[in-house]
Design brief:
Helix content: 25-40%
Shape: globular
CATH topology of one domain: Amidase signature (AS) enzymes
Strand order of the largest sheet: 1-3-2-4-6-5-10-11-9-7-8
CATH superfamily of one domain: Amidase signature (AS) domain
Radius of gyration: 21 Å
Oligomer: single chain
Strand content: 5-15%
Order of helices and strands: HHEHEHEHEHEEHEHEHHHHEHHEEH
Number of helices: 15
């Protein structure tokens, strides 16, 4: 029995039946990491003592007949999620050696649920990137093809699950950073409604856009992890006063009662023909299953990427001002306070982060605030209204997740705008605060293609139910996961 091949809920069932111990499960996944991660670079930190201590605590819960749905199941954490006593760097030199004195709320929730914490995952520095190539610790590679990107910014979180080094992981999604790598790695990646999962302890990038969410190999596993991490948190002022996302209320929908919108703006010329072919086959199959499709128009999507790349850098410019080498992180030598901060940031931040800070600072400057930032927020409001109106006539909206399959490492580095345009389909969910999920629709030339489903705000359980029905109609998760 290869424990690393089992799904999260299969592992949970065997743990509860005492067929295997939490320590054995943890050791099996640690062995898998030792065997494969030298090729993939999905992890920034694996502390085996920390993991085994977490597993032993889980086993104590199991021995007492306590715990939840994921007790003893390993979970990987993106390294922008704070962990008490364990280094959290955001894949940036400027936070090298930083050890938080507290846990993020999602980590505290996982500990309370008895999950085994497996390690800290690689990412694009400060979660700023689409490909997974912007880490100070080097790029993560896609387990389906080691010469290709896994998608970003939650690159390590996705690659770890796709390579069966973990059954579950957490990422963060500011403009598609969970759904994009889920698509390129053949996974389920879910961004909950903004506010349903606490952001306390998440190192902020864009505070009005960021949302923590799960990666898994099935919708059922994804819903179980969403339940464990969600719920109201008084430590987060943006947390909604709603109960946790209930996996028991996630019912696999009868697709014959479902109406799904197809926005023409997300099926345009930017979509790769191979991706379009997979999506059309998926739509045809769902039609045979009884789904009613409706063509819709969301005109403001045309401005989505432009608007996002004003708002997100503006918020990043404010949030990253705290990293100065004085309070935490390494400090460079410099003349006077200003010189010290300038040198520290010049040496500590990578190129992409510097670029976004400068763009955001410019957009917030006195002469351009109204022309750029305020106008972008007006477009954002218009986009939200268009989606809310669309949800009055459809249950969900379907689109590609990524307009192209996984591309080769370095292939788009010379064209940063091409990278940013890949976020076209994923950005609207963050702009409106809506839930979104990506699941595997098929494979083209040996590479997975994701289909994205978006739903109304707070309709998370309904969206997961629809996704479960779509997953079954499209044949479920891939039968064989890649082995490098």
């Amino acid at each position: 029995m290869e424990l690393h091949r089992l799904s999260a809920l299969e592992l949970a069932d065997r743990l509860k039946k005492r067929e295997v111990s939490a320590v054995e499960v943890a050791e099996a996944h640690l062995a898998r990491i030792r065997a494969l991660d030298g090729q993939i670079n999905a992890f920034l930190k694996v502390d085996e003592d920390w993991t085994l201590q977490s597993a032993r605590k889980a086993q104590e819960l199991l021995d007492r007949g306590e715990g939840g749905a994921l007790t003893g199941v390993p979970v990987v954490l993106k390294d922008n999620i704070s962990t008490d006593g364990v280094e959290t760097t955001c894949a940036s030199k400027i936070l090298s050696g930083y050890v938080p004195p507290y846990d993020a709320t999602v980590v505290a929730n996982l500990k309370a649920a008895g999950a085994t914490l497996l390690g800290k995952a690689n990412l694009d520095e400060f979660a700023m990137g689409t490909s997974g190539e912007n880490s100070a610790s080097g790029p993560t590679r896609n387990p389906w093809d080691l010469e290709r990107v896994p998608g970003g910014s939650s690159s390590g979180s996705a690659a770890a699950v796709a390579a069966c080094m973990a059954p579950l992981s957490l990422g963060s999604d500011t403009g598609g950073s969970i759904r994009m790598p889920a698509s390129l790695c053949g996974l389920v990646g879910y961004k909950p409604t903004y506010g349903r999962v606490s952001r306390y302890g998440l190192v902020a990038f864009g505070s009005s856009l960021d949302q923590i969410g799960p990666f898994a190999r099935s919708v059922a596993d994804c819903a179980a992890l969403a339940e464990a991490i969600s719920g109201h948190d008084p430590l987060d002022s943006t947390s909604l006063a709603h109960p946790p996302i209930s996996r028991d209320s996630v019912k696999q929908d009868d697709l014959r009662s479902i109406k799904i919108g197809l926005p023409r703006e997300l099926f345009g010329e930017a979509i790769d023909p191979a991706v379009r072919e997979v999506l059309e086959a998926a739509i045809n199959q769902l039609t045979l299953e009884g789904v009613e499709f409706k063509d819709i128009s969301l005109p403001s999507i045309e401005y989505g990427v432009t608007t996002y790349y004003i708002i997100a850098p503006a918020e990043a410019s404010s949030n990253l001002a705290r990293f100065d080498g004085i309070r935490y992180g390494p400090r460079a030598e410099g003349t006077g306070h200003i010189g010290l901060v300038e040198r520290t940031r010049a040496e500590g931040f990578g190129r992409e982060v510097k670029s976004r800070i400068m763009i955001g600072t410019y957009a917030l400057s006195a002469g351009y605030y109204d022309a750029y930032y305020i106008r972008a927020q007006q477009v954002r409001s218009a986009m939200r209204r268009e989606f809310e109106l669309a949800y009055q006539s459809v249950d969900a909206i379907l689109s590609p997740t990524s307009p192209i399959p996984a591309f080769k490492l370095g292939e788009l580095n010379a064209d940063p705008m091409a990278l940013k345009l890949l976020d076209l389909c994923t950005i609207p969910a963050n702009m409106g605060g809506f839930p979104g999920i990506s699941l595997n629709a098929g494979v083209t030339a040996g590479l997975p293609v994701g289909v994205q489903l978006l739903g109304p705000a707070l309709a998370d359980e309904r969206l997961l139910g629809i996704a479960s029905g779509v997953e079954k109609a499209l044949g479920g998760p891939p039968a064989h996961w890649p082995i490098p």
